[in-house]
């Protein structure tokens, strides 16, 4: 058990001393949970094999799932990646700092453990001042997966990180709730084409606007077939799941409310939209309006955790639209549900 320290750093102004102490912890090989605009990250020195191994241990993460390296300037990008395609540079110019992760050819500086042996490395320049200041002050790049125990919903508040990682990390920086609420968009490049391996805060539409086109990897919305290799290793695991069983329900109009109200099951709950609430008679957790995809993203993980706190056994979840950041919400819910989907006629 580590004596985890909690640093309240609402902004970089006034938080300098605590941030320096957290950065020193990284520089010395320790583990620091820090905020980003997407979700909280479980960070360590990304150039240290030992520190990165400690991330895998603290999180309980399978060794074959590679990590993202977080940078705070273009010099660090040049240190970590080689032969960067024009398309990647265009996306970086448009969306960095921001919720976008680029999968690029790795340089020899990147430890094998970070990439799980792949010849590519995932790199992200986060749009959160506390994150960037932490990276800058640590004097290295920070490897960080989401700061949850492997398999459980990602953390969007420091309280979520405390629940999962207290006693397993040196420092938890509390900077309040994360703005975006779902992880970064992971993009790889093949022969000039961008491929979305994981949808996230930067949308498919935004990427297509810059590059003319963007392919969404089939694994984003479909289970891998037997023996099929995941382009992004994280895609093969059941993910983001609360303890309650999640079942996704595709239904228009009032059909969702009628369906859940009609179920006769113990420990039943619903994750739904504001528009459903007036008609639902079972315990319900709303993600906001059915047309507000940003709000749905920002509330998703807290809702998945709230369902467990409520003690629900099964949570029927109203399937979101897949436009904009809705695709990321849909992708996370599909995985939380291990692809169990019920389709109702309207
Ligand atoms: O928003 C985010 O991206 C957050 C914050 C903390 O930055 N981080 C995050 O990390 O979500 P993690 O480890 O939970 O998810 C990283 C994803 C995984 O699905 C992993 O398989 C994929 O990125 N990934 C990492 N390196 C890769 C590579 N070289 N090729 C393909 N996929 C990769
Ligand atoms: Mg994660």
What's the short story on this structure?
With 346 residues, the protein is an alpha/beta fold.
Write a structural description.
By secondary structure, this protein is of the alpha/beta class. Helix content is 31%, strand content 21%. The chain has 11 helices and 17 strands. The longest helix is centred in the last third of the chain and has 18 residues, at 293-310. The structure holds threonylcarbamoyladenylate and magnesium ion (MG). Residues 36, 38-39, 41, 65-68, 99, 101, 103, 115, 118, 120-122, 124, 126, 144-146, 183-184, 186, 197-198, 232-234 line the site of threonylcarbamoyladenylate.
What characteristics describe this protein?
binds magnesium ion; 346 residues; 11 helices; single chain; binds threonylcarbamoyladenylate; alpha/beta
* Major sheet attributes: 12 strands, mixed
C-alpha termini separation:
53 Å
Taking all Cα atoms into account, the compactness measure Rg is 20 Å
| Structural class category | alpha/beta
Summed over residues and divided by their number, the pLDDT gives a mean of 96
Give me the count of strands. Answer: 17
Q: Which strand-content bin applies to the residues?
A: 15-25%
Describe the oligomeric state of these chains in a short phrase: single chain
Low-confidence region ranges: none
List SSEs in N-to-C order: EHEEHEHEHEHEHEHEEEHEEHEEHEHE
């Amino acid at each position: 058990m580590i004596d985890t320290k909690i640093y309240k750093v609402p902004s970089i102004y006034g938080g300098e001393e605590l941030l320096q102490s957290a950065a020193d912890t990284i520089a010395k090989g320790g583990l620091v949970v820090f905020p980003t605009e997407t979700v909280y990250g479980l960070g360590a020195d990304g150039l240290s094999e030992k520190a990165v191994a400690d991330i895998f241990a603290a999180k309980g993460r399978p060794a074959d799932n590679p990590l993202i390296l977080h940078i705070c300037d273009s010099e660090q990008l040049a240190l970590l990646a080689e032969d960067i395609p024009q398309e990647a540079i265009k996306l970086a110019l448009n969306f960095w700092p921001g919720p976008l992760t680029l999968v690029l050819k790795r340089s020899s500086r990147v430890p094998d453990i970070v990439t799980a042996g792949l010849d590519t490395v995932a790199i992200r320049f986060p749009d959160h001042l506390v994150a960037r200041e932490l990276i800058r002050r640590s004097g290295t790049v920070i490897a960080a997966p989401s700061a949850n125990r492997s398999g459980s919903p990602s953390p969007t508040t420091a309280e979520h990180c405390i629940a999962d990682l207290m006693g397993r990390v040196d420092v938890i920086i509390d900077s309040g709730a994360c703005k975006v609420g779902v992880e970064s968009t992971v993009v790889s490049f093949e022969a000039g084409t961008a491929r979305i391996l994981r949808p996230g805060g930067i949308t498919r539409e935004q990427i297509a606007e810059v590059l003319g086109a963007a392919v969404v990897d089939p694994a984003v919305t479909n289970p891998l077939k037997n023996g099929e290799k995941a382009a992004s290793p994280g895609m093969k695991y059941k993910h983001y799941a609360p303890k309650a069983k999640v079942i996704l329900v595709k239904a228009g109009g009032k059909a969702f409310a009628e369906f859940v109200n009609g179920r006769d099951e113990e420990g039943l709950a619903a994750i739904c939209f504001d528009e459903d609430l007036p008609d639902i008679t079972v315990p319900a957790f709303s993600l906001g309006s059915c047309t507000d995809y940003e709000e749905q993203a920002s509330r998703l993980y807290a809702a998945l955790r709230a369902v467990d706190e409520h003690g629900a056994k099964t949570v029927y979840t109203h399937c979101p639209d897949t436009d904009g950041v809705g695709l990321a919400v849909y992708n996370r819910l599909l995985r939380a549900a291990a692809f169990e989907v019920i389709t109702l006629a309207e």
